[in-house]
Every structure is written in C-alpha cells, then in structure tokens.
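User: Quick sanity check before I run a bigger batch. Here is a single chain. Can you write out its predicted 3D structure?
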Amino acid sequence: MIIELEYWKTILAGLLKARVPITAFVPNHLQLPPRVLQVDSAWKGIESILSDLIKRFHIRTNCCLEFGVEYGYSTVALSSFFDSVIGVDTFAGDKHTVNKTDVYDETVSRLSAFENIRLIRSDYRDWIKQDNNSYDLIHVDIVHTYADTFECGLWSAAHSQCVIFHDTESFPAVKRAVREISRLTGKRFHNFKQSNGLGILV
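Assistant: Done. Predicted structure follows.
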C-alpha cells in the first residue's frame, strides 16, 4: 500500500483526464555491452537492450547523465555507449535500497578504470538547481516515491532527448510519475517490463 499523498492525488485527478498510452518496448535484439560490471544489480537485463534502444530512438551518444549510481552497474553499462557519463548520487542509500551504508569510496574505486565516467556526490535536488546543460540521455533511478521521481524526471525531460526510469514495474509510484511527465511534456511513454521495468520517454 502506497502512503504518499501526491500519488493518490494524481490517481484521482487522472480519472478526469485522457489516458496516457503506454507502448510496450520489445527489443529487436539483445546484446551485452562491452563493459559489464560484476556486481549484483536489479538493473541486470536492461544493459542488453541499450544498443537497440539507442538505435531505435536515434539517441545521440555524446553525453549521458545518471541520477542514482549506487554500485555503478548501470553507469558502466551506459559508459559503453556514451562518450561521457556523469553519475550523480548521495551514495548513502535511501528507504527503498537494501544498502544503507556509504558506498562512495568503494564505487569511485570500482569505476576508476573507466575514464569516461565522472561521479558526483550530490542529491538530485541540489544538482538540478545548478545544471542548465542538455544531455542525450538521462537515467533516473532514485528513491522510488512519486514526488521525487516526478520532480527529477520532469527536469530531466526538459534537459534531454530521452529519459529512462528504472523500476516502473516494481514501484507503481514511479510508473505513475512517468505517465504524468509524459502527459505534461508530450513525450511518448514506452515501457520495458523485464528487470523491474524501464520507462522510456522520447
């Protein structure tokens, strides 16, 4: 049961609005990227659709921004396709992560071999206040509340060609936030159901 007022407000408001279509993302092919980090991750399976996703939606591959790095699995996968990846995280976990300890030094050390990755210790709220850059793709995998996903995701939709959101299937609040961002921005909502779900806004 979700006890988040903003989530239920948008559920009720949505009853009076046109339904946002969600198109199933079915990859034409699966391909492991050249870089795969050997750590446990709920993101496993998504790394194999990145090549197809980038080609299908004609995503440029200069710069990628990621909100939510943790151990760096998705960061390394994304670095196989983008010239530059910036990973932003508090590295201290949140109420939805299994790990609650500080993993900054460990993650920096683990990813130090990848020269095109830059890690920043920051809360997404502080980051979006000062960043006016545009990105080819932004990955959102932060605390899985409606309010946080919506705030970070709406900013991301305004600052990138494509935004991907992890956990659309395991957290209804995330899927609802992506749906509302799609409604507000006019971006199309595609959803990959495996690996806890990946929402794609283009």
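Helices lie at 5-14, 50-56, 73-79, 104-111, 124-130, 146-158, 172-185.

User: Great, the batch can go ahead then.
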